[in-house]
Design goal:
Blueprint lengths: L4 H25 L14 H24 L5 H53 L1
């Protein structure tokens, strides 16, 4: 069981990162410019999940370092071969989380500005 634990942690970290990316995409980060629905600001729960994601992305490598003496044979060879590529994959998804959160925040800011301007426009006409 100790031999597959770093791999399971890596898969969990990847799924966690994909979940955050999906939340941000659904909440408006990837909406087209002609879509005029209101984009909500990035929720605090998503920000906290992103901070947790940082630790989850590091956890498989720390656990591997701790359990390296107990991991032998083919699994050790696989971990040694895939260490850097797997770190790059997690790094890309971690950066994607940040980018999608930034895009969502930027679109939410525009939605708020549009909302304020439309209210001001309606009050000056009346």
């Amino acid at each position: 069981m100790a031999a597959i634990f770093p791999g399971l942690l890596w898969i969990f970290a990847l799924l966690w990162a994909l979940g955050i990316c999906a939340i941000c995409a659904i909440n408006g980060a990837l909406r087209k410019k002609d879509d005029h629905r209101k984009v909500e600001t990035v929720q605090w729960s998503v920000i906290i999940m992103q901070i947790i994601s940082m630790f989850l992305c590091c956890a498989p490598y720390g656990v591997y370092k701790l359990l390296r003496a107990q991991i032998h044979g083919a699994i050790h060879h696989v971990y040694a071969m895939l260490g850097i590529p797997s770190a790059i994959v997690l790094g890309v998804f971690f950066v994607a989380e940040l980018v999608l959160m930034y895009i969502q925040a930027q679109k939410a800011q525009r939605s708020i500005i549009d909302n304020v301007l439309s209210k001001r426009h309606h009050t000056t006409i009346s």
